[in-house]
Write a structure and sequence with these properties.
The protein is 18% helix and 22% strand. It is an alpha+beta fold. Strands 1-2 form a two-stranded antiparallel ribbon. The radius of gyration is 14 Å and the shape is globular. The two termini are 20 Å apart. 0% of the residues are buried.
Amino acid sequence: MITLWNADDFLKTSSGAQPKTLPANLDISVTFAGVEDGTGDVFNVRKVKAAYIPDGQYWTRDGSRTAAQIDAQLNCHDSN
């Protein structure tokens, strides 16, 4: 988990100044450390704030999921 606009949570940041209010949609981009690869998505801030996330689960655009469910969908368990 990372906290937006908190440089301590990032290996290297390039974020701008924190806005006074968040926009309706937030575009997040991630570049993986040590590689020229990344990912990103656009999130509806109101939908994310309203979501109920049980302990041990994470918010996804398809609803809350456990780490195992996320890994299974991305085949992360096969990567090194």
